[in-house]
Amino acid sequence: MIRAVGFDLDATLAVPERSRARILADALDAAGAPELTDAVDRAAYLDAHANHRTADSREPVFAELLEPHDAEADPAALADAYREAVTTALVPVPGVRELVASLREEYRVGLLTNGPVRAQSAKLDYLGWWDAFDTVHISGDLPAGKPDERAFEALLDGLGSDPDETAFVGDHPVEDVRGAAAAGLRTVHVLGEGDDPAPEADATVARDRLARDLPGILREL
């Protein structure tokens, strides 16, 4: 029986209103480095981000991105501009506020999100979600981020639950689904349009049906 539920944040409970590539380009422009738009793309950003999951801010991410280029852009200014652009573009998936509130009547409910402390905290401030969960964990405050088992151990400690009685709900096939499954949790893969289900997933749900279908899925796990 499932007694606790953990959620990912980005692309699971909230999504940006415009593409991440556009957000990155806007941040480069706002920080005075529009000439880097073609050189610093989304794929390069994700590679650099993966190297700094436990950082306090995105400054080391942008420092790594800028290193190969002859540019005077300030990594700290870029990190601030990107954080502002990402945060203000974020909107909740329809119905998830009510979903989380209703689940807390039956389960312990937590959040485990990868990213720098400042960036993810800004999102939670903007959405007003700090008090929406029984426990919140940001990888920048942890020894490791998802898919590392230590990240899920932190979530389980916060929830006060065992792995086999805990479900984790997330969109990323490796960080969320494979990582949670390896840590012994049950897994629900949230699928965007065109996404393929992760083989480790115990169940899947379309993101636009998350609020409607997740309660029934949890009862069947």
Key structural traits:
221 residues; alpha/beta; Rossmann fold; 2 domains; six-stranded parallel beta sheet; two-stranded antiparallel ribbon; 9 helices; metal ion binding; HAD-SF_hydro_IA; hydrolase activity; metal-binding; magnesium
Summarize the helices and strands and which ones pair or pack.
Blueprint: E1 4-7, E2 14-16, H1 20-30, H2 42-50, H3 59-66, H4 75-88, E3 90-92, H5 96-103, E4 108-113, H6 117-127, E5 135-138, H7 149-159, E6 166-170, H8 173-182, E7 186-191, E8 203-206, H9 210-220
Parallel strand pairs: 1-4, 1-6, 4-5, 6-7, 7-8
Antiparallel strand pairs: 2-3
Helix pairs in contact: 1-4, 2-3, 3-4, 4-6, 5-9
GO molecular function: hydrolase activity; metal ion binding
Pfam families: Hydrolase
Family: Belongs to the HAD-like hydrolase superfamily.
Please state the oligomeric state of the protein chains shown. Answer: single chain
Question: For the residues shown, what is the average pLDDT?
Answer: 93
- The number of distinct helices, counting runs of at least 4 residues, comes to 9
Within CATH, the superfamily of the largest domain carries the name: HAD superfamily/HAD-like
Number of domains: 2
CATH architecture grouping of the largest domain: 3-Layer(aba) Sandwich
What is the CATH third-level topology name of the largest domain? Rossmann fold
Q: Helix-strand pattern, N to C?
A: EEHHHHEHEHEHEHEEH
Q: Describe the sheet with the most strands.
A: 6 strands, parallel
Strand-residue fraction?
A: 15-25%
> What's the CATH class of the largest domain, please?
Alpha Beta
Strand order of the largest sheet: 5-4-1-6-7-8
Which radius of gyration do the C-alpha atoms yield? 17 Å
